[in-house]
Amino acid sequence: MKNKNRPFFYEKKETPLWKWLLIFLCIAAVLIIIGLQIPTVRQRIVEPIYAAASFLVNSARDLFNMTRMYHEEKSEKNVYEPLEFPDSQVLFAESLENLSAISQEDPLADLRQTPTPSEYSKVAAWEYLDPNLNYAISSGGLPKEETVSIQLIPPVFEHADLFNDGPAILSADLRYWGITENQYHIAQMIHPNQFDPFTSFSDIQNYISQSYENLLSITRLNGTTDDMVGLLQRGIPVILLIQFHLPYAFWLQDDHIGCQYVLLLGYDSQKSEFSFQDTIRGNTMKISESELLSAWYPYQREYLVIYPAEKDEDVKEALKENYFEELNTQRALAKFKNDSEMLPENPYAQYNYAAMLHKDNDNGGAWDSFQKAQELSLPQRYFNLQTDMLQTALELGFADDLTDFVKPLWDRNNNDEILTLYLGWAEILRNNYKEGISFFEKAEKINPHSESVRYALRYKDTMLN
Q1: Long-range contacts at 151-155 (CB < 8 A, ≥ 24 apart)
Q2: How far apart (Å, rounded) are the C-alpha atoms in residues 87 and 251?
Q3: What does the alpha-carbon distance between residue 239 and residue 262 come to, in Å, rounded to a whole number?
Q4: pLDDT tens digits for the chain (465 residues)?
Q5: Are both 188 and 316 inside the same structural domain?
Q6: What single DSSP character describes residue 76?
Q7: What angle do the packed helices 451-463 and 417-429 form, to 10 degrees?
Q8: Number of domains in the chain
Q9: Domain boundary among 290, 323, 356
Q10: Do 278 and 172 fall within a single domain?
């Protein structure tokens, strides 16, 4: 029956599909914006949203570049005059008097006071700095005769926000020591740009030294099960950087290989199993000893220990000669040299040895080993995390190689403070000061608190003017 309240020419119209879609998108956008204001919601929705957006943008650019690559001719790479890099204390000296005082000091004096084997009667004499150390990659150190079962009390769990596993794991470690912290407060100082993808051990250490006078922090290389158990037995958790598989693709043909910080909290020798807190995947996680050592190996098995000053003797007792940085570096160099010879087809073995050669000031040898590692195919994100190869290229004057390594990664995320700095250093090598300084200033906007950024800006002010 016709509705008398409607005119005879009335026709019922369906709402177009595109209008419903627009309404849905608007509602979704409002819900996302509201959700981003709630930390617990934000921590779970930002990464997949960012990954999807990155995948679309990066894939479009990669496809566009594929249409251009056949028209670009490769130019010959040049070697430039290496730069002089003053020590940061010298560069930041406020006066000639301060500079003179610094020049008379021996910054390695404490390291040169190394112990002798007799000081560590618990360590077998053959093991002390033996150049033929033959630890396999999966080895945890010396065999244990006793059953060990340790489980430290996990701190209150906090899920990490996007690229925020560094500040989140640091806040967990601080809460273990009774200090109330959260990842967002820490991130304001060491990770202020949400999209800067990585926080380094040195960033964390600088925050500790500037914020907590009663806490000490050390990083060491070539960690073993013995080192970890020794620290855990004394009630000291350990921060590790390990490799893991990313759940989302950020570009076409993404290899999904990334890394994250974890807080080691326990060990069970009967199960050969470690327990740890993972601010990305869960509160209390378990991992076999062999799996942990394998995932840890790509980053020279570096570890960070944060502890109250009164526990310094406990740390020294747990780490034995590895407590002394210079000795630890020598042992790591011997170990990774041996690995590179035993495992010539392993890119991580080659890279780790190269990184140690760089630390030992052998840039020529380091570059040769870096090239071997690169030929064996390292993960796509590796140079976001490991800068020894980039630094070696810089110190040798290989500006073109440096740009070739950094630019593709930087194009995928130009919020990366470290990659931005290295692009700037490459331009400084080429005497393109205006372009180099522009990159330094971009890095400052990303993280004005970074020691690397502050050094670059100081270098610009003192060495380029």
Answers
A1: 151/265, 151/266, 151/275, 152/176, 152/232, 152/235, 152/237, 152/265, 152/266, 154/265, 154/277, 154/283, 154/284, 155/263, 155/277
A2: 39
A3: 6
A4: 555 565 555 555 666 776 667 776 677 666 666 655 556 656 666 777 788 888 888 888 877 776 665 555 566 788 888 888 887 766 666 544 454 444 444 433 333 333 333 333 233 222 333 333 333 444 444 455 577 889 999 998 888 888 899 999 999 999 999 999 889 999 999 989 988 988 999 999 999 999 999 999 999 999 999 999 999 999 999 999 999 888 889 888 889 999 999 999 999 999 999 999 998 887 889 999 999 999 999 999 999 999 999 999 999 999 999 999 999 999 999 999 999 999 999 999 999 999 999 999 999 999 999 999 999 989 988 887 789 999 999 999 999 999 999 999 999 999 999 999 999 999 999 999 999 999 999 999 999 999 999 999 999 988 876
A5: yes
A6: P
A7: 20
A8: 2
A9: 323
A10: yes
Alpha carbon separation from 324 to 136, 214, 227 (Å, rounded): 23, 20, 13
How big is the CA angle at 53 (ends 52 and 56), to the nearest 5 degrees? 85
Could you tell me if 165 and 305 lie in one domain? yes
In a domain, 336, yes or no: no
3-state secondary structure string, 238-288? EEEEEEEECCCCCCCCCCCEEEEEEEEEEEECCCCEEEEEECCCEEEEEEE
Q: What are 68's two structure tokens?
A: 């251009």
Residue 164 shares a structural domain with residue 263: yes
Give residue 65's domain range.
17-69
Residues 210 and 306 in one domain: yes
77: phi then psi, degrees, rounded to nearest 5: -80, 140
Which is nearest to 305 in space by CA: 269, 242, 263? 263
Residue 188 tokens read as: 């304001």
Q: Is residue 229 part of a domain?
A: yes
Domain edge (last residue) among 323, 347, 382: 323
- What is the rounded CA–CA span in Å between residue 96 and residue 192? 34
